[in-house]
Amino acid sequence: MKPPEAQKTPEAPPPPFVPPPEVAPPVSAAPAIQSVQAPPPEPAKIAPPPPKVVEAPPAPPARPDIRVACPTQVAPEMPRKAIQEGAEGVVRAEITISNGVVKEVNVTSGPRVFHAAVRNAVMQYKCQAGSGEVKATQEFVFKLE
User: Fold this and answer.
1) For residue 89, what pLDDT band results from cuts at 50, 70 and 90?
2) Fold of the CATH domain 68-142
3) pTM summary value
4) CA-CA distance, 43 to 24, in Å (whole number)?
5) What is the domain partition of the chain in residue ranges?
6) Is residue 106 helix, strand or coil?
7) Which H, E and C letters describe 61-96, residue by residue?
8) Cβ atoms of 116 and 106 closer than 8 Å
9) Residue 127 CB contacts under 8 Å (≥ 6 apart), including other chains
10) Model confidence over 94-134: pLDDT tens digits?
11) How far from the centroid of its chain's Cα atoms is residue 41's Cα?
């Protein structure tokens, strides 16, 4: 006996080619070009040149007041407290002298621990000055050695 044969189904032919319809793009009218006149530009503003900077001449170097001389000067002692604290520094004092005698000592800068020592020493100065009152400034350097 023969096996039954499978029946072949005939293949369907492919569908016929149908080209897509031709669609014309919509025609749009070109925008109308209008002529517009721009406002005239503002004239450029020119700023006046800055004033010239004139540098002042340098100040003359500070000169010591030579209207007074103090041939007898006592050096201030290093305060015990400064030694214990290891303090050092520069003290500036303004001295007022009248008829060769120190009248006032005004300490203007420096570590406070040295102020009294400077005042005590300067008050012992013997100076030569003209008549009237003279002011002088002196610096004292305190350094541990």
Assistant:
1) very high
2) TolA/TonB C-terminal domain (3.30.2420)
3) 0.53
4) 53
5) 68-142
6) strand
7) CCCCCCCEEEEECCCCCCCHHHHHHCCCEEEEEEEE
8) no
9) 68, 69, 70, 71, 72, 97, 100, 101, 102
10) 999 888 889 999 999 999 999 999 999 999 998 887 778 88
11) 42
